Amino acid sequence: MGTGAEDRRLPALAQRRRRGQRSLRRRLLFVAAIAGPGLIAANAGNDAGGIVTYASAGSQYVYRTLFLMVLIGIGLALVQEMSARLGAVTGKGLAALIREEFSIRLTLLALVALVIANVGIVVSEFTGIGAAFSLFHVTRYVTVPIAAVAIWLLVLFGSYRYAERIFLLLTVAFLAYPVAAVLAHPNWHDVATSTVVPHMLAGKAFVLLAVALIGTTISPYMQLYNASAVVDRGIGPDEYRFERIDVVSGVVFATIISLAIIVATGAAIGGHGVLQSATEAADALRPVAGSEATVLFGLGLLGASALAAAVVPLSTAYAVAEAIGVERSVSRSFRAAPLFLGLFSAQVLIGVTVTLLPINPITLLIGTQVVEGIVTPVTLAFIVILANRKSVLGEHANGPVLRLVSGVVTVVVAAMALVLVVITVLGWFGIS
Question: Residue 325 region, left (φ>0) first, then alpha (ψ -120 to 50), else beta?
Fold first, then answer.
């Protein structure tokens, strides 16, 4: 009797299973359809500099910074959503809106600082590409120029849709980090506790690391690229509800990746101290997680650096072209958008050249971090003010709660950035 009843239930169970599979496929197709600027911008923040910072957090403090990273992720989601909303509703990038709503002097100041900082970041991305290939024993003198030409050709001769698909494909490489975290065999109870319970320290080193985590996660170029890419993709107010999903899911994915990097290095070498390079972080995983984790770390570094090596110079080109009011689009030819594509090309050339020089780029990168520390709160202030103005966004402007929360986030980021700038400047004069 029991067997007959089970037989009669089988068709119904099979039908429910098939419906569940179809539902899952529909959800995956939906996510694939809306994935775009938000996912790309958020994950571009997990670049070579970000990987070093997250890995160093795990190496120095094991899992103590996980809760802080969750808070930073929430702040990033807030900022990214506002920048995407500005692009979708107004049909203009952030630089164009800043030019229209503020003085020329403020616009020029923001642009100059952004260009200086971004050029330094481009150098670090090509350095990251070279470091990733060095893990596979391939010299940077061959791989960096090839990668630069590939990125340059993609942007200059591809449409926005084609370039976006390649950028999205590069984000797949980030999946290497959760795998590396699992292979490192962390204490998952400690990981869960540190993720939901604050474990802050009052020391100077921890404060500096916290500033670095904020700076590498919430970067101005991400917001500039996000808003401009939304416009370039043709997303308007009617489609923005889908773009919001793209933004939030992109930030969630990027935050999970940053947490995975901290967990992987924390489990492998927690208490080791400050790391000096992504290569050192990858090598540190080998004794605990084996050669597979090192390969995964290298693949993730390569994908992250290549993605950011395209996004960062694009964000600069978008900003300058928007501020001046000239043609800017990945879908345009060099003849139609000479300034936009010329700026992009120049940054790629500078990044490759400096990376291949027999010099240590650390001094340059420290200087750009100071500029980045100044640019970040300024850019956030522009975004918050613009998103609050009904004259700009109408009914889509920030409400009272969002005004308060976004204001607090901006003040906190500005205060932390100021700490970084002051400590760095004092260091120049030998004052610790």
Answer: left
Q: Tell me the domain boundaries of the chain.
A: 41-358
Per DSSP, the residues of 133-150 read: HHTTT--HHHHHHHHHHH
Q: How many helices (H) and strands (E) does the chain have?
A: 19, 0
d(CA 372, CA 158): 30
CA 212 – CA 197 distance, rounded (Å): 21
Separation of alpha carbons 252 and 39, rounded Å: 9
Q: What is the pLDDT of residue 365?
A: 58
User: For the domain 41-358, what is the CATH code?
Assistant: 1.20.1740.10
* 293 Cβ neighbours under 8 A, 6+ residues apart: 179, 180, 183, 184, 264, 268, 285, 286
Closest CA to 215 of 383, 366, 59: 366
| DSSP string for residues in 222-288 | HHHHHHHHHHHHT--GGGHHHHHHHHHHHHHHHHHHHHHHHHHHHHHHTTS-----HHHHHHHHHHH
Read off the pLDDT of residues 93-114 as tens digits, 9 standing for 90 and up.
888 899 899 888 888 887 887 8
Query: Do 91 and 231 touch, CB atoms closer than 8 A?
Result: yes
Statement: residue 184 has pLDDT above 90: no
